Amino acid sequence: MSQYTHLSMSDRRDIYTYLQMGLSIPRIAARLGKQRSTLHRELKRNSGPKGYFPTVAQRKTEQRAQQKRQSKLEQEGYLRDYVVSNLNKGWS
């Protein structure tokens, strides 16, 4: 288990198959060469009321990737005020 990579559609199909076979999360993770926490997170984020389905999981993942996230300086708050204040003082 080396460098982090996103789960592929193939990985998601394998997860589904292994779950149907009754394998545990640690055994599935070992077979896929992924961390257990990656699988737990995948199942928590992408399972629905009827269970885990790879096509639904892939669609949810793609939708989240398309959402625009505000940077910390675009959000109102202390950090933004602090940075703007000090930039106005000539800080770089």
Secondary-structure topology with pairs:
Layout: H1 9-21, H2 25-32, H3 36-46, E1 47-48, E2 51-52, H4 54-66, H5 78-88
Alpha-carbon distance between the two ends: 41 Å
Low-confidence stretches: none
* Mean pLDDT, all residues: 92
Instruction: Quickly count the helices.
Output: 5
Can you tell me the overall shape? elongated
Sheet having the most strands? 2 strands, antiparallel
Radius of gyration: 20 Å
Strand tally: 2
Helix- and strand-based class? Answer: mainly alpha
Task: Give the strand order of the largest sheet, numbering strands 1, 2, ... along the chain.
Answer: 1-2
Order of helices and strands: HHHEEHH
Beta-strand portion reads: under 5%
Helix share, percent: 55-70%
Structural features, described:
The protein contains five helices and two strands. Helix 1 runs antiparallel to helix 4 and helix 2 crosses helix 3. It has a two-stranded antiparallel ribbon with strand order 1-2. A hairpin with a 2-residue loop joins strand 1 (47-48) and strand 2 (51-52). By secondary structure, it is mainly alpha-helical. Helices cover 61% and strands 4% of the residues.
Summarize the model shown.
The chain is 61% helix and 4% strand. The protein has helices at residues 9-21, 25-32, 36-46, 54-66, 78-88, and strands spanning 47-48, 51-52. The mean pLDDT is 92.
What are the salient characteristics of this protein?
92 residues; mainly alpha; two-stranded antiparallel sheet; 5 helices
